[in-house]
Specification:
The chain has 485 residues and is an alpha+beta fold. It has helices at residues 5-9, 61-73, 173-190, 230-249, 295-304, 309-320, 324-330, 334-347, 350-367, 377-388, 394-407, 411-418, 426-439, 441-448, 454-465, 472-483; strands at residues 11-22, 77-78, 81-82, 84-88, 98-102, 108-114, 123-133, 137-139, 151-153, 160-166, 202-212, 222-225, 257-262, 267-273, 283-284, 291-292. The longest helix is centred in the middle third of the chain and has 20 residues, at 230-249. Bound molecules: adenosine-5'-diphosphate, zinc ion and magnesium ion (MG).
Amino acid sequence: MGVSPDVRAQYEAVIGLEVHVQLLTKSKIFCSCSTRFGDPPNQNTCPVCLGLPGALPVLNREAVTMAMKAALALNCAINPRSRFARKNYFYPDLPKGYQISQYDEPLAESGWIGLGTDGTGKRVGITRVHLEEDAGKSLHEGFPDSDSKSYIDLNRSGVPLIEIVSEPDLSTPEEAHTYLTRLRTLMLYLEISDCNMEEGSLRCDANVSVRRRGATGLGTKTEVKNLNSFRFLQKALAYEIDRQIEVIEGGGEITQETRLWDSREQRTYGMRSKEFAHDYRYFPEPDLLPLVISEAWKDEVRRCLPELPQARESRFITQYAIPNQDAYLLCQSRAVADYFEEVARLSGEPKLTANWILNDLAFLLQENAKPFPGVSASNLAALLALLQKREISGPMAKEILAEMIRTEKSAAEIVAAKGLRQINDAEQIAATVREVVAANPKQVEQYRSGKTATLGWFVGQVMKATRGQANPQLVQEVLKRELAG
Ligand code: ADP
Ligand code: ZN
Ligand code: MG
């Protein structure tokens, strides 16, 4: 496509996301069937989630509590009374012919989430958070007769979801990406979803329109579906923004429609004209009572909320004086943030701790395909203490950490077994330095004639001769003295 940066700059995109989050309840939203992922097809079903006539839904209290957690964390007002509604449509994986959702009386409304750490960055409005049931799954592949038949797995039918609808407050694909990342981290902290996009427990539809920069009205939007990764979300939005600009620049008009992202072709294409609310013939679900939420229940849920990731991030920045980016990365996962705090407390070295967790530890775990954290907090703290006391050098610490991950031994054990103590005795180092200097007259000549870069080479030689055990700083100092002649 050919939208030049100049033309693009004359436009502004308007984006609003509709995000579905699968809740981690043990049982489904209206029956007691298991929500386990990956079981044999149709194993976890009953008359309710199979949509058999006469079966009656009973609301799962745990699903409501989880949805309330999300709503409160998103600064929403929880309605004292909300209601379920039938959303009618025909699709093979929807056995009842309608989905039980919420419509004009949702669980919660009028919230927001910030895109930065606590109290910084753009605020994106949350229009609503509502509860609904998931549909089953159509299986189009993997059977001998898949070319002529589709199969239906209803294990997912009735699994609880929340839908989180944002205001059209996002202006770029990057902002949409940040928004979804913040939302995901929040859900993970609340432990209400595993937010696995590949397995479909986090799904995102993107609404997007463009308008001339400075215009105040909203342009006609399209809704892009099939965005099953963060990368696709960004790519699809970038594509769709350019496509819309091109249509408008060409004198055309945007058709309000639903489009699908095709990751192979790297483009969106029209799937169907947009459906309107009246197409779904919404009406109140007669088999369920209105959902009434007392102040006491709300307070109880609010009391159970953990420290939220963005608040924790700002606390890390001030309390530990670590770089913003480190705080951001550590707080992406509650387990990592907890681990960091524990190691920082034990070692008394927050900056060093952040560094080692985010760099060497992360790298080694990935390289060895080991799950986080790989070493206990006290073991890592002990290693960092040795480093801090200069009993071992940085390169030695890396080697020891790798071995700790492999063998689960403590740093002290490995140091003792290998005789890996750092040499901090200047005299002992000077002896080795003199040997190296005596053995390399040519390099000494070079150094003395002004090629001081040779110093690095000498340091390397001494380190090698001491099997990496010499204190590198001390080596430099001694070398300079000895080479000065
Ligand atoms: P619909 O009529 O399609 O249900 P809604 O007003 O309910 O539209 O909004 C659905 C989503 O689309 C929301 O996330 C909202 O922020 C977003 N949205 C609404 N209008 C626009 C627009 N003109 N451009 C981009 N996004 C929009
Ligand atoms: Zn069931
Ligand atoms: Mg709508």
